[in-house]
Amino acid sequence: MKTHRISTTISQKHWELLKKHAEKYETQQKALELALESLENSSRQSPELTPEEKFWMRLKGAKSLVIIEKNAFKLLIETSDIELLSELFTQNKIIEYTIELYFQKSLEECSLKEVIDGLMINIKITNWVDTVDYTDGGDHYNLIITHDLGFGFAKLLTIWIENMFTAYGVKTESTCSIKTIFMKIFKN
User: Fold this and answer.
1) Are 173 and 184 in contact, with CB atoms under 8 Å apart?
2) 126-132 own/partner pairs: CB under 8 Å, 24+ apart
3) Please, are residues 107 and 100 in contact by the beta-carbon 8 Å criterion?
4) What is the DSSP-derived secondary structure letter of residue 90?
5) Tens digit of each residue's pLDDT (9 = 90 or more) over 65-76
6) Cα–Cα distance, 29 to 24 (Å, whole number)
7) What pTM does this model have?
8) Percent of the chain with pLDDT over 70
């Protein structure tokens, strides 16, 4: 077996740990090798984060979200100026920003499928909706969203999503009601 010589400095705390484990395992070399193997084994056992969990981690770092109870959010939406909120989301490109943050590249660099997947993850983590899904309809994707936040919310969310797809450069056709949003997203 080929061996390699290392030389490094460690803190007093870690020096004490190394001495303690070197006594137990007979040499510093064995103690360090076992520690490295343990690190390797524990990293393999760590469960992979879901796309939503990865996104939460990025958003946490961005410090751009505030948690609000769902009924309070519903009341805010019902009593808000829909036009003003739509303008805010359009000007600040909030959905575009979160998709770019998730994929770590510009919206223009994303494929249409990535944009839709990013939108799906974005919508899921907000807990604004009950369900969100899409299917491939050949020349378009069908996006279906259900929620219980009322028609004002459906209208807002539809506008926000349509504006994001317009900025991306694809056409959409939407129908919304009190509890559902149906959207066709056309492939170019």
Assistant:
1) yes
2) 127/70, 128/70, 128/73, 128/153, 128/157, 129/157
3) yes
4) H
5) 778 888 898 998
6) 12
7) 0.69
8) 96
